[in-house]
User: Fold these one by one.
Assistant:
Number 1:
Amino acid sequence: MVSQEIIEKSARIVSGCRHIVALTGAGISAESGISTYRDSGGLWDRYPEGSSGGIVAVMTRHPEDAPQILMGFLNGIRAARPNPGHHALVDLERMGYLRAVITQNIDNLHREAGNSRVFEMHGNIYRFRCLECGKKKIMERDKFFETFERFIPKMKRFSFEEMGSHFPTCPCGGNTRLDAVAFGEPVQDLNEAMTEAGACDLMLVLGTSGVVYPAASLPGIAKSRGALLVEINPRESALSDQCDLFLEGNTGEILPLIVLSLKEIMVKEGGV
Ligand code: APR
């Protein structure tokens, strides 16, 4: 666990910044009970083909196991709620420090926590996109899980065509697909994410192994434009060498301590 001295040092860095951006990965949702990908026991640790081909490769490789793999993944997200790490980022936004969250996560937890500017580079699991007109629509959480529960457990052998036949039809009459980005597809909100990375004076690098691009290029862009990089992770990542400060631990524990220390600084400086 990090020392109080490092927590206070991080809070002082935050207090001196005015355009903070958070780059988050699966690690920030780990304390909400959602499996990460590359940790031991993580999704790609259990299904190595996922590391280069994502969930599509896993479903294709294990069609007979796919229904319960998919339901396991969905049940993890269904049970998940924002954790203290997500809420600390909302505090930083409401205190006027955090301007945007750029996330690789598709679990919608940053939006549910209350952050107002969230750029979801890998899409959002609850959002459907029309294959004809491109219109996007978020499905209400309970309805989303009911939709999948109606047919996935009954599937003997997984098929994307069959899964797609249960998705909502767009008002234009087009079929829809999940608006989550599959490996090899273009990411979403890339321009907005690059703009934020180039404009920030501090990037918080939270819970990512930093091995998937273009998201992993964002800290380098921020640094090249003079921003500081502060990383929180229980272990070093591929981005740690670029970071100015590395706090070893869980975002759900460390971020709230930084916010607490920041509030003390604000009181001392008469900011509140
Ligand atoms: N707090 C902070 N970090 C944590 C925590 C925690 N409680 N638990 C785990 N971590 C860290 C791990 O040490 C690891 O560095 O989170 C990181 C998770 O790494 P990955 O599983 O690789 O997830 P991520 O970096 O988000 O993967 C990026 O890869 O497969 C694709 O689309 C998928 O969006 C995902 C992308």
Note: The mean pLDDT is 94.
Number 2:
Amino acid sequence: MAKVELKGIGKVYDGDVRAVDNANITIEDREFVVFVGPSGCGKSTTLRMVAGLEDITEGELYIDGEIMNDMPPKDRNIAMVFQNYALYPHMTVYDNMAFGLKIRKTDKAEIERRVKEAARILDIEELLERKPKALSGGQRQRVAVGRAIVRNPKVFLFDEPLSNLDAKLRVQMRAEISDLHHRLKATMIYVTHDQIEAMTMSDKIVVMKDGKVQQIGSPMYLYNHPINKFVAGFIGSPPMNFLTVKIIEKGGKIIADEGSFELYPTEEQAKHLKAYVGKEVYFGVRPEDMVYSKTPAENNNMQLQCSVVEPLGAETHLYLKSKTQTLIARTEPENKFQVGDTANFSPLMEKTKFFDKDTEGNICEVVKSE
Ligand code: ADP
């Protein structure tokens, strides 16, 4: 299998649209890497440059140490699975899977062996004689993956492969693709706008925004150590809460003043926040780091009002209002809340983040990006 390296990769489309700017990404051999970000952030363009479907405007692309910039797609030893599956409607499943090998003039017996092996791996052996219209969405998705597997490529590329499936099937296919990655031991690059797919499937996430890589790291690293407010808000569901607070100094202590309550940063946080006295910053707290208490806590108490109660079974999400801002908390289902209730929460301060209001950078942590 293969290592893929993007060095200073950029893409400018005709008409001066800059889609990707200076992307430096290394995908190790057998790694499952997800490019994630909102629509239009440049993730498909980046993938398509790896595939050879788009010219590379700037920088260098290497697969296994060999420069690929001018290599035609068919010689890159990659296989791509598209969002719309791109199956040939008039061909059977077998022929759809065999097609790429036929045009490469692979031996007939070898084609049969590979198609049957892929069908076995994907559990679609019973479907080989059917046409795509006689398949469910999930089955079509498997055929599209099968067509990639038979090629035995160095690198698998997936472009939003699950976005046409319903929610339940997406969860199932997510697990199937992860399982496939372990069994094939292949290098895989997967593009999605869905942060849950990124979190659950990847060894490494590349978060993109406006054509720029924001941060690269393992799912839990990004979750716990986001480089900026964008990554903090994008990774995690429900998302991190952000409150605008003013940093003040009172009696020698650094305090984050929300207007209706005051929060005491940890000693470590306070060191970094000293430079912000008199300024507003964003305070970030994840919904699970909001701790409920029946009586107001002595420090860091936030007295809030429930505006929405969402029982999900295993947990309940509460929408809580301060005088001016709204937060979400994840709570135990045993705690019964009603809309209009006043509730006391305090943030687990050591887990909270502060972000600069102008740069949106993480103020209190020195954070890595690969
Ligand atoms: P994503 O996959 O993250 O949704 P894309 O890579 O498709 O984003 O697009 C990135 C940016 O490039 C967007 O602003 C998009 O409008 C622009 N773009 C994509 N394809 C073309 C094209 N063929 N010509 C001009 N602009 C394009």
Note: The domain at 241-356 is CATH 2.40.50.140 (OB fold (Dihydrolipoamide Acetyltransferase, E2P)).
